[in-house]
Design goal:
The chain has one domain. The protein has about 70 residues and is mostly helical. It contains three helices and no strands.
Length: about 70
C-alpha cells in the first residue's frame, strides 16, 4: 500500500473515532432525491438554486434533522 493510501486510511479511522466519541454515526439512507429536495425547499432549508448541489442538500438535511432533535 502506498503512503497516500495509508494516510487516507488513517484519516478515515481518525474521523470514525471522532464520530464515535461524539456519539454520531453515518448511515446510508436511500431516498427519492426529488421529494427530498422539494421538502427541503418547502421548509426553507434549501434554496431552489442549490437543488443540484449535493453538499447543499446534505447540509440542509442535517439542519432539518437537528431542528427535529431540538423540538423533542
Amino acid at each position: 500500500m502506498s503512503r497516500v493510501g495509508r494516510q487516507r486510511g488513517a484519516d478515515r479511522m481518525r474521523q470514525l473515532r471522532q464520530r464515535r466519541a461524539a456519539g454520531r454515526i453515518v448511515l446510508p439512507v436511500e431516498v427519492d432525491e426529488g421529494r427530498l429536495v422539494d421538502v427541503l425547499i418547502a421548509s426553507r432549508r434549501l434554496h431552489p438554486s442549490a437543488a443540484d448541489d449535493r453538499d447543499s442538500i446534505r447540509r440542509a438535511l442535517e439542519g432539518l434533522i437537528e431542528a427535529f432533535r431540538l423540538e423533542a
